[in-house]
Amino acid sequence: MNDRKWDPYFYDPDDHGHCVLAAPEAFSDEPAPRKWLDLLWPDHDPNRTGRNSAAVESRLFSSCAGWPEPPTALELYEAIREPEPTRRQKNIVNMWAAEATPREIFKAWAEHAYTWRQLVAALHRSEFPFPGRIRLLNRAADVPEYEGVPTWRS
C-alpha cells in the first residue's frame, strides 16, 4: 500500500483523488546555481534568462497562440511575483504550470525565471487546480539535491 495515500499534501481522504500543493516554505527560495544552466544547456543565450527566459517564451508561444493578446515571458515573470495578481496574471501562471513540460519548468528555474518557492506561492495565489502537476511539484520538494547541487528546497 502506498504510504502517502493519506498524506494531505498528496491526497485529501474526504475528496478522493484531490491533492493539496505543499506550502511555499517547503521549497527552496534560492536561485538556480549557474552550474545547472551551463551543464544542461551549454549553448544557452545569457540574454534569454530571467525576465526573458527562453523556456518560458517558447512555451508561451506554443500554448498561447490563440489568445487575443498572448502573454510574454516578462508577464509570467511579473505574475509570479505579484502578491495580488489580476485574473490575467492568474491565468498566465496556471497556464504555465499546466502546459509546460517538467523539463520546461526546470529549465525556466535554471534560467532564473523564478525560484521554486516563488512559483509555488504564485500557484497558491492562483488556486492552481491540476492534481497531476501538484503531485509532481510536491514530490519534487522531497529532492533536496542532485549530484551535490541543491534543487527544490533548502
Could you describe the 3D structure shown?
By secondary structure, the chain is an all-alpha fold. 44% of the residues lie in helices and 3% in strands. Helix 2 runs antiparallel to helix 5, helix 3 crosses helix 4 and helix 4 crosses helix 6. The N terminus is likely disordered.
* Cα end-to-end separation: 30 Å
Number of strands: 2
Approximate strand percentage:
under 5%
Compute the average pLDDT. 83
What is this structure, in a nutshell?
The chain is mainly α and 154 residues long.
Topology:
Blueprint: H1 34-40, H2 54-63, H3 73-81, H4 87-99, H5 102-110, H6 116-125, H7 131-140, E1 145-146, E2 149-150
Antiparallel strand pairs: 1-2
Helix pairs in contact: 2-5, 3-4, 4-6
Task: Please name the defining characteristics of this protein.
single chain; mainly alpha; 7 helices; disordered N terminus
